TrEMBL record:
Transmembrane segments: none annotated. It comes from the Bacteria. It is found in: Periplasm. Residues 1-19 form the signal peptide. The keyword Signal applies. Keywords: Signal. Belongs to the bacterial solute-binding protein SsuA/TauA family. The keyword Cell membrane does not apply. This is ABC transporter substrate-binding protein.
Length: 328
């Protein structure tokens, strides 16, 4: 019996040492996401399923509220990779960054917000927003720009045809609407679906389907990091592609079950509803390649919103080498 216990003890110690050695051999990658969102489901799938570890990477994920703060962390080397709207790379470039920020892997390809009305509207038309009070997103951010682009597309002048409120912080927009501010509000999931469940509002339209495909959220890094850590970036992109395939091939229920640990306070059935809604409208990019047509649509939306002093060439801020290899 003693020899059995001794052998078992030695085996356990050996396994612990092996696990420790494997952990030490992983390359640490610090990733900053602009918010925690079901909109980013493939990222959490890659984490939960161990796809990054299988590529030799230990991803340390932190949520950094706000695109400006996320980019500051990236520029100051607080993080290696940022998950944020592609428009931020344009803003940084136009400010004269010495080390260009380049988009190397696309995660979402449509706007992720929905138009929520205070009342049920079975026969909704965009013209019904005229004369209303519309609670929009922060000026200069991609949700606001996509929102205004859609309004103008439907013949609505945001400055004259409705009362547009944009001075409320992102975190407080849903609370303001629930408290009685506005007839319509532009919301991300799962808040939009939660409002429907609680009878506080009704989803009547999707800004994502109306604004077309664009690099809404992408992984980006300094050009120097992409050059010096090419193997790491390739492994990261490979893992992301596997996660994107998982999201496309598996049911919304299975995806919801996998990512639920990242949304502990959200019911799994609600997560499933949100995943299905984003899948059905093609919000999740099917691969990490950021197409030039999407890049140009992004800049058109920014121009329409008056937030783009000049266009920036696709080749300057987009690197598709890693994404192409991941797909191959």
């Amino acid at each position: 019996m003693r020899w059995f216990i001794r052998s078992l003890y030695i085996s356990v110690i050996a396994l612990l040492c092996l696990a420790a050695c494997q952990q030490e051999s992983l390359e640490t990658v610090k990733v900053g996401e602009v918010t925690r969102s079901i909109f980013y489901a493939p990222q959490y799938v890659a984490l939960a399923k161990g796809f990054f570890e299988e590529e030799g990477l230990a991803v340390e994920l932190q949520t950094i509220a706000g695109g400006d703060k996320t980019m500051t962390a990236l520029l100051s080397d607080g993080i290696d990779i940022a998950l944020v709207g592609s428009e931020t790379s344009i803003y940084v470039t136009l400010q004269g960054a010495n080390d260009p920020i380049r988009n190397f892997a696309q995660l979402t390809q449509t706007d992720g917000t929905f138009l929520v009305a205070r009342e049920q509207m079975d026969d909704f038309s965009w013209a019904q927003l005229k004369g209303s009070t519309f609670l929009g997103q922060r000026k200069g951010g991609m949700p606001q720009m996509a929102g205004e682009f859609v309004l103008k597309k439907h013949g609505i002048d945001p400055a004259n045809d409705l009362t547009l409120i944009q001075n409320i912080d992102f975190a407080n927009i849903s609370t303001a609407f629930a408290s009685g501010t506005g007839d319509f509000v532009q919301l991300f999931e799962p808040t939009a679906s939660i409002f429907e469940q609680e009878g506080k509002g009704h989803i009547v339209a999707s800004f994502g389907t109306e604004s077309g495909t664009l690099p809404y959220t992408s992984f980006m890094a300094k050009n120097s990091y992409l050059e010096q850590q090419a193997t790491t970036v390739q492994g990261f992109t490979n893992a992301l592609k596997r996660a994107q395939d998982f999201v496309q091939q598996e049911s919304a229920a299975e995806v919801a079950k996998v990512i639920q640990p990242y949304f502990e306070n959200v019911d799994v059935q609600l997560i499933e509803t949100v995943v299905e809604r984003y899948k059905s409208q093609g919000s999740y990019a099917t691969d990490p390649i950021l197409d030039e047509a999407e890049w140009e649509n992004l800049q058109t939306i920014m121009e329409t919103a008056g937030e783009l002093p000049q266009r920036v060439a696709y080749e300057k801020l987009v690197n598709t080498i890693f994404a192409q290899k991941a797909v191959e």
